[in-house]
Design a protein that fits this description.
The structure holds two protein chains of two kinds. By secondary structure, chain A is an alpha/beta fold. Chain A folds into two domains: about 180 residues, P-loop containing nucleotide triphosphate hydrolases (Rossmann fold, 3-Layer(aba) Sandwich); about 70 residues, no CATH class. Helix content of chain A is about 35%, strand content about 30%. In chain A, the strands form three sheets. A six-stranded mixed beta sheet of chain A has the order 7-8-9-4-10-11, sandwiched between helices. In chain A, strands 1, 2, 3, 5 and 6 form a five-stranded antiparallel beta sheet that branches. A two-stranded antiparallel ribbon of chain A has the order 12-13. Chain A is globular. By secondary structure, chain B is mostly helical. Chain B is built from 14 helices and no strands. In chain B, helix 3 runs parallel beside helix 8, helix 4 runs parallel beside helix 6 and helix 12 crosses helix 14. The chains are: A alpha/beta, B mainly alpha. The interface between A and B is large, with 53 and 36 residues.
Amino acid sequence: MATLQVNDIHTGYPKKKVIDGLTLPPLVSGEVTVLTGPNAAGKSTLLRAIAGLLHARGSVRYEGHELTTLSPQKRALYVSFMPQSVPTDINLSVMEAVISALKASPLDAATVNNEHLHHRAISVLERIGIAHLALEPLNQLSGGQRQMASLARSVVREPHILLLDEPTSALDLRHQLKVMRLARSFAQDGRIVVMVLHDLNLAMRWADRVVVMHHGELVSQGAPTEAITPAVIESVYGVRVRVEDCSQGQPNLIVDGEC
Amino acid sequence: MYPSTAVIEKGYRKQFIKRGTLLATLAVATVLSFLVDIAVGPSTLEFAGVLQAIFSPESVDLSTRVIVWEVRMPYAIMALLVGAALSLAGCEMQTIMNNAMASPFTLGVSAAASFGAALAIVIGFSIPGASGDWMIVVNAFLFAFGATLLLQALSSLRGTGPEGLVLFGIALVFLFNAFTGIMQYLASAEALQQFIFWSLGSLTKANWDNIPLLFGLFAVIAPFSLASAWQLTALRLGEESARSFGVAVKRLRFLSLIRISLLTAGATAFVGTIGFIGLVGPHIAKLLIGEDHRFSLPASILSGALIMSLASIISKAILSGAIVPVGIVTSLIGVPVFVALILNKRRR
């Protein structure tokens, strides 16, 4: 089982340190980990630091590789990051964009042969359920479709570690479920999937592990019902909640009001 | 019902062939425009005569041969080269700065070249070894190159993104225009006239000495641009995505800026300030062919060369017996296109 170790991370922006010495429990392949917490908790900052998009001190270690010291090309062999927002005004087809993700830096033999390349791109679009949009220009897609196309670009390189920053933010209910189901299936492929989510009920339903952050620090972590408790939610969000099992046995978070 | 893999692949190939055909059409149009450019002038030549003079010079009379080879051919080739260089530079600039309004003209590179030329013309200042007309060429080149490096240095300041780079570029336009204003204020009537003629942008400075220099520069740089096509396409998907795909974005931007500065500096040095080609050329290319840089870069090269060649023809047709500086023509065409682009962007 492959493990991602995130230890003693210090990171932030030029004039603002966001995270100062955060360590995560080991993240293992086959699992979906959800990072959650209130706005400005440092979730996306942490995800960017793991992706190597932000300068960070500390250690991000995967299978003997220190990811913080790898070149962008080498890091891209292991990690892929799906940003929260994607540019809207791009005159590229969905297929071209997915292929450009494959061709942007050397990957493997499959990216050399055009036929393999096309098949790989199309099979990802089929898996995500947007094959019918393959030849559509990105600037003519809806926000949700663009987000699904962005997910396709993030997974087409078959990363060992898949980092998704609020992948459901622009999606309707059905597509939210679809993305969560896909995240689970990417994990079942043997990947480490880490995602930032605001929807705690989605996190409880689909995550293997939840990490709750506040002010750049880890507040609680563990299995969803261990990490998301009324006491934790009250302390970080300032709202009163109950966690109750629904008729089908799923834990459900019910918000009663502000503290 | 989702389309099958074969259907999508066929559609993708069809799209590919369509874009290739568009590129070939642009190339044919450029060649035709080049031939018309040679044919048009104070003494209009027959199209067949032009072809004969090009492919079998010894079979035409001396005056036709001289007009074609010594007078019009250098102008026509320079038009293609300058258009291609500025448009390629504009295409790369718009991508690396993530701004559709970026071009060498709008970001101060041309203004810097003008100031360099003004220094040479008005006070005779240049680097040691440069003399005569070469002082203007060398100064324009160095200042255009320097301005792009300055943009690069400013953009590497912490917290400055592509948006900051555009603002710095606009500041450079005003700064160098102010410096050039001082030079104009100090200039003698003769120097002022010479500078104004230079700054209007004219192909009449083209000759068989400077064409190989610009051609060599373009021939060396363009392959590097084309080799970066996938990285540039990935960058259009957002900087974070591109970096996640393994693109060393800082390095890509730096090398691209070097290419842009050399192309712009080379083109501006030999013909003066040519407005809007670097903006309009890439836009037309992207409208026709999309933003897959495997196609949009060569399409920008061709559309820039074509527009410049057409502008050269128009510059000879406006006033009979006179050649209007081509920079005036490109600005006259470019301004309405520029306004249309802004309005179109707003509407979207």
